[in-house]
Amino acid sequence: VFGPLSVKDNLRLGAWSRRDGDLEQELARVCVLFPMLEAMLEMRADALSGGQQQMLAIGRALMAKPRLLLLDEPSMGLAPNLVDQVLSVIRALKSDELTILLVEQNASAALAIADRAYVMETGRIVLEGAGDRLGLARVDINVGILDARRARYAEALPVLVSAAAPGPRRWSPDRVRRRRRRRERRSDQARLAAQHLAVGQA
């Protein structure tokens, strides 16, 4: 959000690409979705809490009347009551037939909303299916991820087995002599330091 600007100005900026001038109706709709923002329209955006700023960011995106809404971790760092409010708004937008692409670490909440879900691990899709089906089998999700890990490890196992095990470290005589000289120099430096310290104390 744009901190120095008011909440209302932040919302109006979300509609900068719209050609029609009817913004008040959309502003009123956002205030219905987020009643907390209606009482803060004249406040600076940087005076809002993190959860309120998250609501403002979603509301500003809705001001553009998008056909596709992208949401990246909308519940991250929010208090539980604010998480419930944000999720209820997402459900309401879905019921209004707005297409939503939701990336969310709260798997149970996301699966309860999603029509189609993809479970990713380290950038790879390990499971996919209907959201309600995956939501009813959360244990199966964990099992599926473990099975995917085992499959990758099984692919790498022949390579690991065929690799020669490292033998004991063997140093050349020159390296042994260099290490011995370094140890002797460190010992000499320590003795000199101790002598100086003894002289100073005397």
Write structural notes for this entry.
The protein is 57% helix and 11% strand. Mean pLDDT is 76; it is low at 148-168. With 202 residues, it is mostly helical. The strands form two sheets. It has a two-stranded parallel ribbon with strand order 1-2. A two-stranded antiparallel sheet has the order 3-4.
Class inferred from helices and paired strands: mainly alpha
Largest sheet: 2 strands, parallel
Reading side by side through the largest sheet, how are the strands ordered? 1-2
Radius of gyration: 31 Å
Mean pLDDT: 76
Q: Between the first and last Cα atoms, what is the distance in angstroms? A: 68 Å
What is the molecular shape?
A: elongated
The tally of helices reads 9
List the main descriptive attributes of the protein structure presented here.
202 residues, mainly alpha, two-stranded parallel ribbon, two-stranded antiparallel ribbon, 57% helix
Helix-strand layout with pairing:
Blueprint: H1 7-13, H2 24-33, H3 35-38, H4 50-62, E1 68-72, H5 80-95, E2 99-103, H6 107-113, E3 116-121, E4 124-130, H7 131-135, H8 138-162, H9 173-201
Parallel strand pairs: 1-2
Antiparallel strand pairs: 3-4
Helix pairs in contact: 1-4
